[in-house]
């Protein structure tokens, strides 16, 4: 009781300005962009871990794979950041009272993320351009980048799990951590972090599968190898997720586990559909690699993984909202709303136009073959 | 009053944001002007059938990608992170007012990043016309991104009609919006030329083409500075009177910085004319680097001045720079009365002490400093309060604290009870009394 009273005292008041759209619009955009961010982030983190592994397991195929990853990763990192900006925006507008508070409690770590990110980013570019001139870069840089990314993932998980430790916020603040607080104590931090990293590794594997698939026409042996290697890398962590997922589930309050497993048809179906989609994707990839039938099974697995990611984003939000429920003063549904329909419409129209323009640019890029005398 | 406080020793939160913002501005404006530069220089190479210039543009585009997409993008996120940590109240207000502006800006950012990569990877793969179209898409998206962020930045200094209507467009298209958008465009053009000078002299190439490129880049600088000279006075005319007063004599440091902006800019323009424009063959990479340093200094002092003239507000007439409510903040009067009657300590959610007593006046004073002053002042670092109140008697401190906004118009009013003012005065006095004041919690 004392704890709850302290909490109510420290929860920052909601901003007096109304939300400029109904919460469901923000939530929809938050979940959509977060799903896209997670896919880009997983490709980058998983790809970088695999790149680090190729540095230690030399072979001709590994060299070809590292060549592909060297070109791919800086681009995917760039899109990880770009696609991360949007959910950051929507988190701040809906959950600002919590997000600003927890970010301040671990403020210096939060700022260090930028330094880690920039180092990893330039590290990947150094690897891309200078790996043949400097053996050190070739061997160790991917590992350094991978470690930095894994640490960034941990810091992100820590911040968002700190939302749920609201009864302890003031105690943490007054303990003179001075912005250096690390949220190791929350029981979900470690399993959730491992859950994300395994997911990233799986998507990294899927990336190798897709890469192998596209390379089979020009380099059949390598393409085949990449699909099978990627398939194994995809399937194993995905199956391991059962163990980590179970661990994660056990850290939740009993009431929530019951809701997820039995009580709420919606929650149960989301959890089991997500698990089933991930499992089918893993088995399908394993089967397609075994049978060497690539086309539709690879495409279907990719689609299933996107579905799994989206469902896990919803699941993650459901856990957070449940754990925040005792914090009665924080109620997104009760926030004042004054929709700015004109700007919302402009955003929607520009988003469609922007996607069309990017689509057109990609189309002309991939249609262009080697250039002509008139080529730029 | 709502959020915990992140102490930034020696620098202070403002300078922390400042460092990130200055380097970001120096690169992000290049990301805009440099986009225009890439397409126009590529067109020049085709028009003049000059392979050397075309080769230069290709190399320049690598440099452009490595600097803008990595450093520019991450420091941009850095501003987001740092303002949320140092000014959560103001960030929350801005996000609530302009989240759709940022969302629209994000669409342009997405197109911009995609176009930058595709422009770079499509060299030699698509027709010249298509390649130039991609370059134009990049530039338009980058400029639109600037145009939107400019609205939010100028809003903070001149919120105009928004204070009463809370209408998105009143806030974005505020009194300094257009002139500032043009000024930022001019700065983007200048930076395109400045970075161009560096790469033109840095990359290997024959002397003849290097001289052509140096002269060409210097024209970008001169053209940009000409616009800046025309637009500058219009901007000054449109800013609030207090901001003009602060930057033109009212506050010595701000005046000095504002003057430095003008003098450094004029110097770069003069150096450009007599250096790379008149003597392009003598201009080397080392000189270009020195121009870059000067350019960074101008960016630094200008950004610092732009922030300083907004004092005592973070959002003009809406929120003071310490996050406390100003005139137009919803329920500002009620909140102010509450703070004056009940005190600040009891209302600050994160305070270790609830009220001043004989046993805790130093601790309470330190807490009050944190609530009202530490957003701008450090204890003994940048804008350090210890040095500022050196030699002040306790009576003088106690007398001036409640009246500080009248004595120094760039300071926010001091809230709190008389007892709290006394505790703050005692703590401030204690800073210069003993080597180690008993200030820790």
Write the SSE topology.
The complex is a heterodimer of chains A (376) and B (441).
Chain A (H helix, E strand, L loop, with lengths): L1 H9 L12 H34 L3 H46 L1 H24 L4 H28 L6 H6 L14 H27 L4 H31 L3 H10 L1 H27 L3 H30 L16 H27 L9
Chain B lengths: L12 H35 L3 H36 L1 H34 L6 H30 L4 H4 L2 H5 L4 H26 L4 H32 L2 H10 L1 H26 L7 H24 L4 E3 L3 E2 L11 H11 L18 H12 L12 H4 L5 H7 L3 H4 L10 H14 L10
Antiparallel strand pairs in B: 1-2
Helix pairs in contact in B: 1-2, 1-4, 1-7, 1-11, 2-3, 3-4, 4-7, 7-8, 7-11, 8-10, 9-10, 10-11, 13-17, 15-17
In short:
The complex is a heterodimer of chains A (376) and B (441). Chain A has 376 residues and is mostly helical.
The total count of strands of chain B amounts to 2
Q: What's the overall geometry of chain A? A: globular
Oligomeric state of shown chains? heterodimer
Broad structural category of chain A: mainly alpha
Tell me the structural class of chain B.
Answer: mainly alpha
Overall pLDDT level of chain B: 94
For the largest beta-sheet of chain B, the strand count, sense and barrel status come to: 2 strands, antiparallel
Q: On the 0-100 scale, what is the average pLDDT of chain A?
A: 92
